[in-house]
Amino acid sequence: MENLQSATTLHNGVKMPWFGLGVFKVQDGDEVVQSVKAALKAGYKSIDTAAVYKNEEGVGQAIKDAGVPREELFITTKVWNSDQGYESAIQAFETSLEKLGLDYIDLYLIHWPVKGKYKETWKALETLYKEKKVRAIGVSNFHTHHLDDLLQDAEIKPMVNQVELHPLLNQSELREFCKKQEIQIEAWSPLAQGELLENAALKEIAEKYSKSVAQVILRWDLQNEIMTIPKSVKEHRIIENADIFDFELLPEDMDKINGLNESRRVGPDPDNFDF
């Protein structure tokens, strides 16, 4: 993990950057265009969006404006809950592809495990994968029991599981399960929506390395082999978040951060959501 281009190899052989930009709650239009362009200019290669974020068009515009060769980029989007099911997921994919202005998507995810629907949706993703419209397929917000259930019928194993993950919710059991199954874990909300930035223990560790708390958390992700996609709309923060390749947390500091776990979420529980 030397720089922003450093990648892990998913179980199907596709390389995916460890670090990327998330654009949840970033307004479509100028805000998302400038945010993505700033990231690409800073050397980011991975951009994570979703149909429900309603900013795929802006992400596509930024990609076009930035002029980075398409094959150097890794673009993720997700099928929303109301579009789950076989035919509707295929249609949702085509809509996302059109909005992004791309010929293919690098990673397509099921956004939430909608009961009674996610297996059918997974079949649609397998079809898109076989048709080479996507380079990799995966899930988001799946607990171990959702994955167990999906794997009973899946022809193709998910390559990625993107979940809420940060020092207050370190997901150690889920991470262990995914590792055994060769499913790569990716963290959304890695900074717990900013809640962790004032944490005293993390501040102390940050001072020791002359880094920010955010940088320490994001470095902790990487050293735990967790892909991470912090969100920001400020160029200086986008650059700062990525400045984590010039130091390494010592084992005792990794242990201290691991010890902050409270199994506490800042987002909805995948076993109890109503959207």
TrEMBL record:
<dbReference type="InterPro" id="IPR020471">
    <property type="entry name" value="AKR"/>
</dbReference>
<dbReference type="InterPro" id="IPR036812">
    <property type="entry name" value="NAD(P)_OxRdtase_dom_sf"/>
</dbReference>
<comment type="similarity">
    <text>Belongs to the aldo/keto reductase family.</text>
</comment>
<dbReference type="GO" id="GO:0016616">
    <property type="term" value="F:oxidoreductase activity, acting on the CH-OH group of donors, NAD or NADP as acceptor"/>
</dbReference>
<keyword id="KW-0560">Oxidoreductase</keyword>
<dbReference type="InterPro" id="IPR044500">
    <property type="entry name" value="AKR5G"/>
</dbReference>
<feature type="site" description="Lowers pKa of active site Tyr">
    <location>
        <position position="78"/>
    </location>
</feature>
<protein>
    <submittedName>
        <fullName>Diketogulonate reductase-like aldo/keto reductase</fullName>
    </submittedName>
</protein>
<dbReference type="InterPro" id="IPR023210">
    <property type="entry name" value="NADP_OxRdtase_dom"/>
</dbReference>
<dbReference type="Pfam" id="PF00248">
    <property type="entry name" value="Aldo_ket_red"/>
</dbReference>
<feature type="active site" description="Proton donor">
    <location>
        <position position="53"/>
    </location>
</feature>
<keyword id="KW-0521">NADP</keyword>
<dbReference type="InterPro" id="IPR018170">
    <property type="entry name" value="Aldo/ket_reductase_CS"/>
</dbReference>
<feature type="domain" description="NADP-dependent oxidoreductase">
    <location>
        <begin position="27"/>
        <end position="261"/>
    </location>
</feature>
<feature type="binding site">
    <location>
        <position position="111"/>
    </location>
    <ligand>
        <name>substrate</name>
    </ligand>
</feature>
